[in-house]
Amino acid sequence: MLIGRTILVAEDEPLIRLDLTAALVDVGATVWPVADAREAFRLAAAPDLTAAVLDYNLGANNSVLVGWRLHSCDVPFLFYTGCFDLPALPWPTAPVIHKPSPMIRIVSTLASLITRGI
User: Fold this and answer.
1) The model scores a pTM over 0.85
2) CATH number for the domain harbouring residue 29
3) Does residue 1 belong to any structural domain of this protein?
4) Which residues, in sequence order, are CB contacts of 90 under 8 Å at separation 6+?
5) Which among 17, 21, 53, 72 counts the fewest CB atoms within 10 Å?
């Protein structure tokens, strides 16, 4: 489903980051797991990045700047967050999936975003 794709996973909770990474690797993706917004921002402009999964809250920061960078590089992304009171986000094509959710939902949503080229 995601064979040969490179996915950025920005998640500050180690067990969730590990689950996301395992689920994506299981379907053939290369995963770049990071725990903070600074590292996610740095990787967001990498030329071989295909898509991203962002936790809205990354420690003391949020991932909005990472979202802007991904958007400016035409990299599709989704939010996987436990935050149910998100502010209005400026990316209507970026799905918000609330924790907890089955990993297959994240995988299939990413595959759909990549296929549509959003």
Assistant:
1) yes
2) 3.40.50.2300
3) no
4) 67
5) 72
Domain span at residue 42 reads 6-93
Would you say residue 42 lies in a domain? yes
Answer whether residue 106 is part of any domain.
no
Do residues 1 and 27 make contact, with C-beta atoms less than 8 angstroms apart? yes
DSSP state letter for 99: S
pLDDT at 1: 78
Query: Element (H or E) spanning 3, and its range?
Result: none
- If you write DSSP's letter for every residue of 22-74 in order, what string do you get? HHHHHTT-EEEEESSHHHHHHHTT-TT--EEEE-SEETTEESHHHHHHHHHTT
pLDDT value, residue 69: 98
Residue 15: C-alpha distances to residues 20, 21, 24, 98, 113 (Å): 9, 10, 14, 16, 25
The number of folded domains in the chain is 1
CB 93 within 8 A of CB 118: yes
